[in-house]
Amino acid sequence: MKDLVTHVRSQHLFAPGETVVVAVSGGADSVALLDIMSRLADERLNLVVAHLNHCLRGSESDDDEKFVSDIATRHHLPFVAIRVDVASFAAAEGLSLEDAGRQARYAFFHEVARRRGASSIAVAHHLDDQAETVLIRLLRGAGGTGLSAMTASGDSLVKRPLLQVSRAELELYLNGRGLTWRTDSTNSDTTILRNSIRHELIPTLRKYNPRISERLAATAEILAADEELLEHLTGSAFDRLASQDDDTVAFDIEALLKEHRGLRLRLYRHGLHELRGDLMRIGLAHLEAIDRLASSGRPNASLKLPGTLRVERCYDRLSFTCAAPQAAQRWEQVVPGEGRYHLDNDMALTVRRVERPEDLATGSKRIVYLSTEAAPFPWLVRPFTPGDRFTPLGMTGSQKVKELFINEKLPLHERSRVPLVFSEGEIIWVAGVRVGEKGRVTSATGAVLRVEILEITP
Q: Which residue positions form the known binding site?
């Protein structure tokens, strides 16, 4: 039989003297893990036993908690437990019991690690768990990232020292040490996918390969090594092609489309993960939809992804955001004459009468001269609404304001902030973009109105 203490030590997952939270459910796997960890004498580990009571099986769950507490006492180790109504949590969050339980457990383990100053969390996933995870993800549909399943060293804290040890080996170890464990009665419920795979699918697959669990685990290990390489390449490409701030990741579309499709899909995943911290509910269909958006001939389009994730194409830029877009504000401001007027879009409009300059060119789209006669007060200022039309300076006939925005390549998210200035029901200025024919200053015009739109800085 494999010497499991030596096997765990050989992985060098734990530094001498460090504090480790050991997740113990009371089942065979976690009881074996705690016993093995307690025998790593050379490492002088400071172990903390953590148990989450899922409150799913009444007195059975309470008995599990008492069983683990007694084990911790026998090992003279600190014991930390918490009770979580996982069924209520699952219903409130729309999760399966398995997913809800996993989220609750890991949140608890990380909190215990934080409070105890632990630098590792040891969990008892083993080779058969790995095989089951590979099959679950294969059935649900997954690429290399998903099929690489679990690693011995997961996130910055989680460690899985038994990942290459089978369930049978763990039970042999327990029997050899004279140790007992608790059996979860729900483990035989084959309406739960993992249990169905464990009790029905894997026994069937063993008819084709008696070592199917080992082969699936080995496949996951190979894919994990490939993923490590591919993630390194993706990270390098992301640093080269993407720009990022607190709530946005953006790519230059021309440069992006020069990359292979496989790398593009990985870049999208990487960008989404940077924004949200996980890729839950993001599948291949979403990544392909993003790629179609990037390859589209449409200059402006957007795509809503699960949660608050949003992807927007604006001409040559593809942007990812994790905040729900703000609804366009509806407001109106009456301008009765000269003065400074604060608008509800965090801008200000200033109007003052000046002598007609020899050169009407101001050098800025934010400043214009308008005729006092052609554009009499009162004015009305409001945001753009679909269907707005005006006649641009020097033109005859009207044009949709939306077409002006498209021609000026104004991003979609900026259009709702552009103020339109009206006189006698006609647009005299699309502020900061184009002057209307109605406000034209002619050679016969005397005094004129100097109008400026300003951003208000807090």
A: 25-30
Domain presence at residue 226:
no
The pTM for the full model equals: 0.65
| Phi-psi domain of 412 (left: phi exceeds 0; alpha: psi -120 through 50; beta: other) | alpha
Write out the residue range of the structural domain in which residue 355 sits. Answer: 333-455
Q: List the alpha helices (DSSP H) in 257-400.
A: 261-276, 284-295
Using CA atoms, how far apart are residues 438 and 393, in angstroms rounded to an integer? 8
Give the residue ranges of the annotated binding site for ATP. Answer: 25-30
Is the model's pLDDT at 413 over the cut of 80?
no
- Please check whether residue 340 lies inside any domain of the structure: yes
Domain assignment of residue 182, yes or no: yes
Q: What is the pLDDT of residues 304-343, one digit of tens each?
A: 998 788 999 999 999 999 865 455 568 999 999 999 999 9
* Closest C-alpha among 247, 311, 310 to residue 274: 247
Do 294 and 407 fall within a single domain?
Answer: no
Count of structural domains, the chain: 3
In this predicted model, what pLDDT tens digit does every residue of 164-198 receive, in sequence order?
Answer: 999 999 999 999 999 999 998 888 889 889 999 99
**Do 73 and 124 fall within a single domain?**
yes
